[in-house]
Amino acid sequence: MRSLTGTAVHDGLRNGYGYLAHLICVIALCGLASGVQAQGSAGPYVPTPWPIVDELLKLADIRKDDFLIDLGSGDGRLVITAARRYGASGMGIDIQAPLVKLATEGAAREGVSGRVRFLQADIFESDLSKASIVTIYLLPSIMDKLVPKLVKDLKPGTRIVSHDYPLEGMQYDRVLSFEFPEKVEISGTPRTVLYHYIVPAR
Questions:
Q1: Domain at 89, CATH number
Q2: pTM score of the predicted model
């Protein structure tokens, strides 16, 4: 396993977002509403650490002509980074209006509003057919229910990268695992696993 320290420089994105102050406000508001606010029933809002964003996008082999859809997109960092760094286009889907607003503002600050958008929507009712890449970081119980929709909506050849949890009934073709110490605060373990899938021909 590789070890990541989390000290990588991220071409202005960290400072551009002003995440610490802004996210603390968002999380506090969500916490006041219901203790730990869930994205519908898909799981709590947990931002993907920046070094894991880097590894995930590299594993996806993202290119300029790709359209990435991030399910449970939170603050939008995956979609925004894909657009800013790789020139890709994309869309984030999240059930929480404050996070959709945060992601939309982040895209504007980073100058990629013309290539990305964020929707407040139920992922099970959203059209995913435009994606060439789908990224997922949701609870396993939701992901298992999501598999039939992914198979139905996505074109053969579409890449899927799942963070930490495999997709039941789908065979991944690549897997990347590594240690990331800062993740202990999120999940209680430094271990991170990224699963790469390619939607098979029908």
A1: 3.40.50.150
A2: 0.81
